[in-house]
Amino acid sequence: MDMQSSKTVKKPLRIMKFGGTSVGDATRIRKVVEIIRDAARESEVVVVVSAMSGVTNRLIEAAKQSEAGNRDEVEAIFEELRDRHNAVVSTLIHSVGMRSRINRELRLVFEEGERLCEGTTLLQELTVRAHDSISSLGERLSAPLVAAALAESRVSSEAIEATQVVVTDTCHGSADPLMGPTRQCCESRLRPILRRGVVPVVTGFIGATEEGVLTTLGRGGSDYSATILGAALDADEVIIWTDVDGLMTADPRLVPGATTITEISYREAAELAHFGAKVLHPKT
Q1: Which segments in the chain show pLDDT lower than 50?
Q2: Predicted pLDDT of residue 247
Q3: pTM, rounded to two decimals
């Protein structure tokens, strides 16, 4: 290879997905920032994040309490979630301008959540559309947080709502991607960001219909988001960071002697997930 062509060698593209435990608190997010910073030196990187651990369960609880008319319960849940996210901001983000911007972004998401819950209380019905919107708030809080933490560490980043890049059918709660439109959206929205050397931080678990209505991909759907983006952008690798070392021969919480499987086919991995292995979303 001559010098001319060696200069134009394209960096590999990696999709890196971080689950709820990986972004569960300020210490974990710091570690995530280090991992991304190291990867971004040698690759183009798209980051996909879940909600902070436990947040989606609390949001679904808030949605159910709204339907039952328990406004005080809903308020208490939102207060608890606000405190948890604010604690991370105050620990990780030191730049005054950045902190006020991220606080404003998070406040808008919380206000939207409270409006959705209030609407559910007034209707006395939790619609599938409202359920998706409320349960997606956790990812919409964690993506700006991780992007801000990266920027604080001098890694150029931009939080992206997956409603702009993952186009799905209308099956609320368990949507599937429409890959043609998704490819087009990824090319127009994500590719220019990557070319500028910026790391997009995308909300996992979420998509939108062709009409722009928010949908979710099912619980654990952030894994699925990562592989949808990987396919749409022809990524070289999709890496799923989680709190176990990989696919295992059995659930380590139930079988103490469970070991990590070093190599497995896509079909076998899909079967494991389909029959209950929590480490991967079955469609991943």
Answers
A1: 1-2, 4-6
A2: 83
A3: 0.92
* N- to C-terminal Cα separation, the chain: 37
Distance CA 206, CA 219 (A): 10
Task: Indicate the angle between helix axes 26-42 and 71-92, nearest 10 degrees.
Answer: 50
- Residue 84, judged by CB atoms within 10 A of its CB (0-12, 13-18, 19+), counts as middle
* 89-124: b (≥16 Cβ within 10 Å) or e: beebbeeeebbeebbebbeebbeebbebbebbbeee
How many Cα atoms within 13 Å fall on the side-chain side of residue 201?
A: 29
Amino acid identity at 261: I
pLDDT (tens digit per residue) in 120-134: 999 999 999 999 999
Rg (CA), the chain: 19
pLDDT attached to residue 8: 59
Q: How far apart are CA 252 and CA 246, in angstroms?
A: 11
User: How is residue 68 annotated by DSSP?
Assistant: T
The DSSP line for 187-211 is HHHTHHHHHTT-EEEEETTEEE-TT
Containing 108, the helix (H) or strand (E) segment is helix 96-123
CA distance 65 to 60: 9
By the 8 A CB rule, do 109 and 37 touch? no
